[in-house]
Design a protein that fits this description.
By secondary structure, this protein is of the alpha/beta class. The protein has two domains: 19-36 and 263-358, Aspartate Aminotransferase, domain 1 (Alpha-Beta Complex), CATH 3.90.1150; 39-260, Type I PLP-dependent aspartate aminotransferase-like (Major domain) (Aspartate Aminotransferase, domain 2, 3-Layer(aba) Sandwich). The chain has 13 helices and 13 strands. The strands form three sheets. The chain has a seven-stranded mixed β-sheet with strand order 2-8-7-6-5-3-4, with helices on both faces. Strands 9-10-13-12 form a four-stranded antiparallel β-sheet, covered by helices on one side. A two-stranded parallel sheet has the order 1-11. The longest helix has 24 residues, at 262-285.
Length: 359
């Protein structure tokens, strides 16, 4: 006896797997904030947990107002989601159907491909230069069936970014009916003068949407909270496809507190600035190539030499209580991605790399 069958395109999906963890090991595989979260956010969670019998505000009005005040935006052009992942899913639901395609860079975030598959749309991945998005290559893949172009800037898992001038050039090369989605999950970590998350573009153009997350700099990954800013028509489409209570009350309360705690955000950036440099330099000194990163992680490449491969390094690190991310699924089989942890965690990771190099 057979039961109901899902759509063929659904069965073709390989489910997303987050960074793994092991008991009694340091988890440095998911780019989480090593400082935890804002104490103000923790306190807000405790207060909100006293009213769990009540439905949340379906519009997340107070949270949207807090975000708008922080960035000088129009709250009516902000929509919140259960992580930016949900916003990508809602965009696919609103704009993609079988026969359509999306365009991304070669090593773009896996969820873009997943949401396209859910809608029966094709994913086109443009070759990168030095693990960095190539605007000309992306534009070459755009045709009459392209509905969304996704650009993670900075990109995960490479840690690279493109300057704002290149983002604008990408937008200028797109047809007016193609939506450009700028994923700024790691935007708060970038100091470079030529970088912008794209809020200006999203505020001015009818086909640009910026997405952000509370999972990284704010350390609220467990609560699943993200948001997007863009043109009224796109925000309206997302509202029409989202669930009526898609962001829970605890997450909303924590988000309001977190976005106002600038001291915690500054401490998180300062810690990352110092430790990213230290970890990268130590791994290089141990004999392994690292790529310049503007995120809270570093991509490490390993040789094919027996005894020094990425798979062997991964196994050695795990035996020594360090879990980092295998990124073969991103088309980088000879690389591992290491999140920046606490000073103690980073010390142990560096020691493990040094021991592996000598083994």
């Amino acid at each position: 006896m057979t039961g109901p069958k899902p759509l063929p395109n659904i069965l073709e999906i390989t489910p997303y797997k987050g960074g793994q963890s092991l008991e009694n090991a340091h988890k440095l595989s998911s780019n989480e904030n090593p400082l935890g979260c804002s104490p103000l956010a923790s306190a807000a969670v405790e207060r909100a947990a006293k009213s769990l019998e009540l439905y949340p505000d379906g519009s997340a009005a107070a949270l949207r107002e807090a975000i708008a005040k922080k960035y000088g935006l129009d709250a009516e052009r902000i929509v919140c989601g259960s992580g930016s992942d949900e916003i990508f899913q809602l965009l696919a639901r609103a704009y993609l159907r079988p026969g359509d395609n999306i365009v991304q860079s070669q090593h773009g975030f896996l969820v873009y491909r997943l949401v396209a598959q859910q809608s029966g749309a094709e994913t086109r991945s443009a070759p990168e230069k030095d693990l960095t998005a190539d605007i000309d290559a992306m534009l070459e893949l755009v045709d009459e069936n392209t509905k969304i172009v996704f650009l993670a800037n900075p990109n995960n898992p490479t840690g690279t970014y493109i300057p704002y001038s290149e983002v604008k050039r990408l937008h200028e090369g797109l047809p007016e009916d193609v939506l450009l989605v700028l994923d700024g999950a790691y935007a708060e970590y970038v100091h470079n003068n030529d970088y912008s998350a794209g809020m200006e573009l999203a505020g001015e153009m009818p086909n640009v949407l910026v997405t952000r997350t509370f999972s990284k700099i704010h350390g609220l990954a467990a609560l699943r909270l993200g948001w997007a800013y863009g043109p009224e028509s796109v925000i309206d489409a997302i509202h029409r496809t989202r669930g009526p209570f898609n962001v829970n009350a605890v997450a909303q309360a924590a988000g309001i507190a977190a976005i106002n705690d600038e001291a915690f955000q500054a401490a998180s950036v300062a810690h990352n600035d110092a430790e990213l440099l230290r970890v990268s330099a130590a791994v290089e000194k141990a004999g392994f190539k690292t790529y310049p990163s503007v995120g809270n992680f570093v991509l490490i490449r390993f040789p094919e030499t027996p005894g020094r491969t990425s798979a062997e390094a991964d196994a050695f690190l795990r035996k020594n209580g360090i879990v980092i991310r295998n990124v073969a699924v991103y088309g980088l089989p000879d690389c591992l991605r290491a999140s920046i942890g606490t000073v103690e965690q980073n010390d142990q990771m560096i020691a493990a790399f040094e021991a592996f190099a000598k083994s």
